[in-house]
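REQUEST ID: PR-0412
SUBMITTED BY: lab tech R.K.
PRIORITY: routine
TASK: structure prediction, single protein chain
INPUT:
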Amino acid sequence: MASRKSRPERRQEPLSRERIVAAAVELLDTVGEGGLTFRALAERLATGPGAIYWHVTGKNELLAAAIDAVIAPTLAGDDTGTTPQEAIRSLALGVFDAIDAHPWVGTTLAQLPRTPGKSPMLRVFERIGRQVQALRVPEAAQFTAASALLSYILGVAGQNAANTRAAQANADRANTDRAAFLDAVATAWRELDPDQYRFTRDVAGQLREHDDRAEFVAGIDLILAGITAGRADGRTRP
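STATUS: complete
OUTPUT:
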């Protein structure tokens, strides 16, 4: 009687915090923040929810780690040989593109509890602050300048991601593309009451043709111009 050969056991990659966070990012990209549960994550990782808790204490920690994983590549560059303005623009665009690719980041940031010293964006704030210092902004104005830049970056990037999702959803329902959707909105703006919406009617054509990234960078440049103008005038008041 022939001996039965034992089948080799399938080797699985050990469960680690990095694997858990990567799977969480994939899940968030697929089903959004509302679909991220430890049960769904456990199914994706082919493990039990209890095993995940060995590496992550709860959902808030997991969300913060997922955001950090998405944003981390934007911090990997070297600012050597660039001006502070160029470094800030590059960092800002990196965050903008990361949030555009992962729209859940913006809404999740707003929902996370504020834990001292543990914000996923603290490293971004630090990177911006160092460039603000390199611009020789007076010390009393450095916090305000860095905060204004970070708030603009996160606010506009998050709103752009939300707008993109909404526009895509509307375009899908109407069976049109984004350009056609923007054209429809611009046409609606042009038909608004001229007394109440004079400015909106005037810029309706720009809505049709605008580029989100270009507009975003233009806003960064406006803030940087204000920061450097204040430095040149010797103003130190925030």
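NOTES: Residues 1-11 have pLDDT under 50 and may be disordered.
REVIEWED BY: pending
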